[in-house]
Write a structure and sequence with these properties.
mainly alpha; 76% helix
């Protein structure tokens, strides 16, 4: 009976360690997902800015050789 209790305590200890490790992994992944989402939104905004036609006069632009 004593050995079974000891085995269960050991298994519980391993399970708690694994759970803590999994929690850290999920936390890190969530932080990375949020960072990537911010980057995607920023890039989407830049892409939209590049795609939107601006009212420019070509006479105002300096040719590349100047």
């Amino acid at each position: 009976m004593e050995s079974r209790l000891t085995e269960l305590e050991i298994k519980l200890s391993y399970a708690e360690d694994l759970l803590e490790e999994l929690n850290r992994t999920v936390y890190q992944q969530q932080a990375q997902i949020e960072s990537l989402q911010r980057q995607v939104l920023k890039l989407a905004g830049q892409l939209q800015d590049m795609a939107s036609p601006e009212q420019r006069d070509l006479r105002d632009e300096v040719p590349p050789h100047y």
